[in-house]
Write a structure and sequence with these properties.
- By secondary structure, the protein is mainly β.
- The strands form two sheets. Strands 1, 4, 5, 6, 7, 8, 9 and 10 form an eight-stranded antiparallel sheet that branches. A two-stranded antiparallel ribbon has the order 2-3.
- The relative contact order is 0.33.
Amino acid sequence: MTIFQKKKINFSDRRGYIRDLFQNSPKDHCSIVTFNKGAVRGNHYHKKSTQYSYLLSGKLTLRYSKVDKNGNIKGKINKKIIGPNILITHKPYEAHAFIANKKSLMIAFADGLRGGKDYEKDTYRLKYKIIK
């Protein structure tokens, strides 16, 4: 199940604020992802890894759905408009794809293989793209 969490400010003073994304939960990978308006990213799922997407700025349309062991869509393809400060949890066997409504900036985290030379080891491209 895809989980959406609006992240609140944990501490604020004259210097600025601190917003916690995770607590007591180290991640295996973290990257910055940029989107130009109209850019499509994703159209994949992971079999073992959990991916977390946190939008820093901009606006994205997310489409997501469960998939079976072969990557076939199971049930409804859901749609949600995402703005800043939303943390999305994509569990294994949940296909996800984003299209940028405007220029956007995201941080992506993962539990499991995802970064550097391991980027494609647990990334499975969808045969039927949920965003074209």
